[in-house]
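re: that chain from earlier
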Amino acid sequence: MSILTDGYPTRIVFSSADSGETLYFKEKEITPPGIDTGEMNDVTSMQNTEWRTFMFRQLKTLMESGMVVFYDPRFLEGILGMIGENQQVRITMPDDSFWLFWGGIRSFVPSAHVEGQPPTAQVQIGVTNHDGLGGALGDEVSPSYHVS
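^ sequence. v structure.
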């Protein structure tokens, strides 16, 4: 068994980014998505004698991911155009394995500008799990993780 021994480099690509730019910003930190089954279903009945019993839900959620980025204000218009746009997102890990899912930028929040430090922004990446474009609900598409 091997493990990741360094988070560098982790990269992200949005399918709708202009062909000349991979991104409108430079990644400083990336948090990959998590997986959650949600709250447990309480199946406790009058037949229980000592403990409450629970079952896992059937559907899973690919949780939001996020990143801290450096950005160029000249590209804020491009970033604005990507906010809320459903598209394919690819997050590549240091070992070249990657997540591929449908989603997009949910929020772009600049940090305080401080003398002596480059400005950054917090970017949240929402997961839609459907391939609908232009605001339409498309077909369900499972996220996938590809091992290199």
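DSSP finds one helix and eleven strands in the chain.
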